[in-house]
Write a structure and sequence with these properties.
- The complex is a heterodimer of chains A (about 500) and B (about 500).
- With about 500 residues, chain A is mainly alpha-helical.
- Helices cover about 75% and strands about 5% of the residues of chain A.
- In chain B, about 75% of the residues lie in helices and about 0% in strands.
- Chain B has a two-stranded antiparallel sheet with strand order 1-2.
- The radius of gyration of chain B is 22 Å and the shape is globular.
- Classes of the chains: A mainly alpha (about 500), B mainly alpha (about 500).
- Chains A and B meet through helix 5, helix 6 and helix 7 of A and helix 17, helix 18 and helix 21 of B.
């Protein structure tokens, strides 16, 4: 199967729909997202476990700069591609159930966003990666700026864009410098191919500043403490269905970037900065958790919980051994598949609490909506990594990896697991139970909304029963191996 | 009987043909402008101007693979000259289209306006071909003097006159500096020819001669005036704001291409052996320009001033490509000039259109909310701004990759970081324009005169003539859409532009 179809179909379908008269755009966008989901499932089925890069397309794009249109699926991006297509399909359907002004633009940007993310995940070319990494951000600027809630949406999303693009531009300089310096050292023409750059590494001195530039881009995008300054304003600026994919997918691309680029390409620097990265991750876990159980805006509770969860993922990646990155990648999928329905449920809860997204205005919403509350409970328990959930497996692997690498950091990180249950259950109880809030009108989930939520929850349940399904298809250790060797050799 | 044989230089008419087409076109438009019928003035004159530019383009393409010294080696026709001439001609055609129904040709008389424009373009073509300090200066003045007049052609508007005068004074200082520097170069090397200078520098080792170095510094300053490189940029915002918008667009793209053409040829041919001397100074200028331009643009509310400051910053990016003085640097600079032309013309075309549709002039409010009402203007402006900011899928992104590649390859990694930091600052103001287009409510175009913005139309252009200003303007929309499409094409299928830039880069054979 041609991978390019999978990548470009969402944008093409949305563009076609936007050019058609009437309300075609909605149907076209939903159909595009669903067919893409189908294609990604087909890729999943055909994928040969442990078979390396598959579904390869490798053509010249810009000969002069050695940039190739090189896309492939392997053990690193397979599950994330699946996550992306699932969440975008969910968002497209969820959005189609609600009215939007100027919906042509809305669905067009949504389609472009999905293509950008899929391109970023599949590309095997460093320049193309940087391009897609920026490109997938632009749609969110327009989506939030035009359809976001609140009067400060433009300021909020501008802050988001400037933060993330500052990181991306540093990454652009670092990426071009990597290729140029490698080309000079090898006395060969410029080549941005990731496999080539992994095979021909830079000297230790150059690796270090380039690693930091890449890390800046990824840490901002996740976001991790102390680079999360855009998160509260940015999250408040986005419409909820858009926020579901943004929070569910885009932060994972940053984690993926560490595994795809930083660890294999700059192993010396990764080892050199291991402690720094682990400390940043640890700080994020503690800071994110603390903020999540002190704030009352549910959006921000979910946002700060993401900061904490991404802290866990980074912790796993920089364990620099086999278990940590494997767990991190599994956890990346888990977090995405949990946080997106959480945002959808928040939308439903807010609709029942008079439009407020504040915990103090909610309460008792579960009394007349047992199905909604049950779905929420499953999502919440998965979020706090209840034993039996796939998130538990992910966190277990991460902490196992960190235990082997740095005992002290692992011990502190364990408190994060406990803190997660505190903030998650606090939010769950104060939204669904407790005294009925003023202005709260409890209603059951509609069938249409259930069509989106139930399959997402079904995926959570499936992985809880059979996490091996995902773990078998994840091959992170192959990408962290160069850095792991550095650790072993010191 | 004594037959006096005066042997003039061999004239290579085919190589001179683009210039001849321009001068012929200038004469023709000037004469046609004298005709009585309105049709002749309003339609024939611009059509002839476009025809002259089109002919010059065709003749340049015909000469595409020539590499030869012409007119006793005073000029040189080669890939670099032809590539930049093509860019300048494209910019000229866009300017004619944008000017077509504007106020400036009406007020200044059509024949004069377009003849001056063609003369200035001829000066630019001459400038990028010149490889002799005398022709350099003549061409420099030939491009400048018509521009001083063109800036002042909206005669009923005080700011236009002010812009013309200011440009004249500052431009003259620049010219004086340049000619003084050129004289010193001649004094130090005994040659006016670029290759002669290079030979003298190489053989006599005058690299540390004070006279020579002062000459280089003055020449650099003089050319920096024209390219609006900080700290020689102070005239730029005022002149850009005051000049008729099509002329501003023309100055922004064509003058810049011409100035960078001569910078490349002078510094990478004549002065290449002293690169160690001027390289760091030029790198410092590029840094200053990037920082000053981007910071200056942050607070602007006039779109023309914003683009003026942005052009200062972009000049800094391109100057970084000159600093490294490698073939890669030349190619990257020419590539970026091509992209720069496309994205700037698209942006200016939208400003022209909105100036005619609203009474807000070039204030940022004039484009507020056009995302909902005028998609054919909103998308080009958005694409232009995103490309100027260097976002992917646009030519600006590829151009920046190419420039950074050239800069790092030339050993100036820190300058690449400066470029990136400058781009970060620039996001703030480019995105402000995009936000205005898509997220703000439209400002009513039927505002009363008292609520006009600072760049508003003059009272005299109101009244009966104001209706004339609001003609439908398909050619302006066409320019906006076409150049935005080119900007996108340069980001998605950049290979043709790379071939174009490579052709230019190969011309300077002395470089690595």
């Amino acid at each position: 199967m041609h991978l390019s179809i999978l990548i470009w179909l969402p944008a093409a379908a949305a563009l076609l729909g936007a050019l058609m008269p009437g309300r075609t755009v909605r149907t076209a966008a939903v159909a595009g997202a669903l067919v893409t989901l189908g294609l990604s499932i087909a890729v999943l089925v055909e994928f040969k476990t442990g078979g390396g890069a598959q579904f390869v397309t490798n053509d010249h794009w810009i000969r002069e700069l050695g940039i190739r249109y090189h896309v492939a699926v392997d053990g690193l991006n397979l599950v994330l591609i699946l996550l992306t297509t699932i969440l975008f399909a969910a968002t497209a359907i969820w959005s189609s159930l609600r009215p939007w002004e100027r919906e042509r633009g809305y669905y067009l940007w949504l389609g472009i966003a999905e293509s950008g993310v899929l391109g970023c995940l599949t590309t095997q070319d460093l320049a193309l990666f940087v391009g897609f990494f920026d490109l997938m951000l632009i749609p969110f600027y327009f989506l939030a700026g035009q359809w976001g809630p609140g009067p400060n949406r433009v300021a909020g999303v501008t802050k988001l864009i400037i933060y993330t693009l500052v990181g991306s531009l540093l990454m652009l300089a670092a990426a071009v410098a990597t290729a140029t310096l490698v080309a000079a050292a090898q006395n060969a023409p410029l080549n941005f191919d990731i496999h080539y750059l992994v095979a021909h590494k830079l000297g230790t001195g150059s690796q270090e500043w380039i690693f930091l530039f890449f890390a800046a881009a990824f840490l901002v995008k996740m976001p991790l403490f102390p680079l999360h300054g855009w998160m509260p304003d940015g999250y408040r600026a986005m419409p909820l269905p858009v926020l579901a994919v943004f929070s569910g997918v885009l932060s994972k691309v940053a984690a993926y970037g560490f595994l795809r680029i930083s660890l294999p390409m700059f192993p010396d620097a990764a080892h050199h900065f291991q402690d720094l990265m682990l400390l940043i991750a640890l700080a994020s876990i503690l800071y994110g958790s603390a903020m999540a159980f002190t704030t009352t805006d549910v959006r921000l509770i979910l946002g700060y919980s993401s900061v904490a969860q991404l802290g866990f993922i980074t912790l796993g990646i920089f364990a620099l051994n086999d278990q940590g990155p494997q767990g991190a990648l599994l956890q990346a999928f888990n977090h995405g598949i949990v946080i997106a329905p959480a945002f959808f449920i928040l939308g439903l809860m807010a609709a029942r609490a008079g439009g407020s997204e504040d915990l103090r205005d909610m309460g008792g919403i579960g009394f007349r909506a047992p199905v909604l509350a049950s779905l929420f409970l499953i999502v919440a328990l998965a979020n706090l990594a209840m034993p039996g959930s796939s998130n538990f497996v992910g966190e277990f692997l991460i902490l196992l990896g960190v235990f082997k690498a740095k005992l002290a950091i692992a011990c502190i990180a364990f408190t994060g697991v406990a803190l997660a249950s505190v903030y998650t259950l606090r939010a769950f109880i104060r939204m669904t139970h407790n005294r009925v809030g003023t202005g709260v009108e409890s209603r059951e989930l509609t069938v249409a909304d259930g069509v989106v939520l139930v399959p997402l929850v079904a995926v959570i349940l499936f992985l809880a029963v059979y996490p091996q399904f995902a773990l078998n298809r994840i091959d992170a250790p192959r990408f962290s191996a160069p850095a792991a060797q550095q650790v072993a050799s010191r | 009987m004594i037959v006096a044989t005066l042997k003039g230089p061999h004239m290579d008419w085919s190589a001179l043909s683009p210039l001849l087409a321009l001068f012929g076109g200038a004469t023709l438009t000037l004469l046609t402008g004298l005709l009585r019928p309105r049709f002749a003035r309003h339609v024939l004159v611009p059509v002839f101007a476009i025809a002259a530019l089109g002919a010059a383009m065709g003749l340049s393409i015909w000469q595409w693979h020539r590499h030869a010294d012409i007119v006793a080696a005073a000029l040189r026709i080669d890939g670099l000259a032809l590539a930049l001439m093509l860019l300048i001609f494209v910019g000229g055609i866009a300017t004619v289209l944008l000017s077509w129904r504007g106020a400036a040709p009406v007020e200044a008389a059509h024949g004069e306006y377009f003849a001056l424009l063609l003369t200035s373009i001829a000066g630019m073509a001459l400038l990028v071909e010149s490889q002799n300090t005398i022709t350099l200066f003549v061409a420099f003045e030939l491009l400048s003097i018509p521009l001083y007049v063109l800036c002042a052609t909206e005669m009923r508007r005080a700011t236009s006159l002010e812009a013309g005068l200011k440009y004249l004074i500052v431009g003259s200082v620049g010219s004086a500096t340049l000619v003084y520097g050129l004289a010193m170069l001649y004094g130090a090397t005994g040659s006016t020819d670029f290759n002669g200078i290079a030979t003298a520098v190489g053989s006599s080792g005058i690299g540390s001669d004070v006279l020579f170095l002062t000459g280089i510094a003055l020449v650099l300053a003089g050319l920096a005036f024209k390219a609006s490189v900080a700290p020689f940029h102070q005239w730029t915002p005022d002149v850009y704001e005051g000049a008729p918008t099509p002329i501003t667009a023309f100055m922004a793209v064509a003058t810049k291409a011409a100035a960078f053409g001569v910078l490349l040829r002078l510094f990478d041919v004549a002065l290449i052996d002293t690169q160690a001397d001027w390289g760091p100074i030029m790198a410092a200028l590029a840094t200053t320009s990037i920082v000053v331009g981007n910071v200056g643009a942050l607070t602007q509310t006039s779109l023309k001033r914003l683009l003026a400051w942005s052009s200062v910053a972009q000049a800094g990016y391109m100057l970084a490509g000159v600093v490294v003085s490698t073939q890669l640097g030349v190619k990257a600079t020419v590539f970026y000039l091509g992209v720069y032309l496309a994205m700037n013309i698209a942006a200016f075309a939208v400003i022209v259109a909105r100036e005619r549709e609203t009474v807000l002039g070039d204030h940022i409010d004039s484009v507020a909310g056009i995302g909902a009402t005028r998609p054919w203007l909103a998308w080009p402006l958005t694409i232009a701004m995103l490309s100027l900011a260097g976002l992917p899928a646009t030519g600006g992104f590829i151009g920046k990759i190419y420039l950074i590649d050239a800069i790092v390859d030339g050993g100036y990694t820190w300058l690449a970081v400066v470029l990136v930091v400058g781009s970060m600052i620039s996001l703030a103001y480019y995105l402000r324009v995009v936000a205005a287009v898509w997220t703000r409510p439209a400002v009513s175009t039927e505002l009363t005169p008292s609520s006009r913005g600072p760049g508003g139309r003059p009272a005299l252009a109101g009244g009966a003539e104001a209706d004339g200003m609001r003609w439908s303007q398909p050619e302006v929309v066409f320019v906006a859409v076409a150049f935005a499409a080119l900007t996108l094409a340069a980001g998605i299928v950049p290979s043709p532009l790379f071939d174009f830039a490579r052709h230019a880069g190969r011309a300077l054979t002395g470089l690595f």
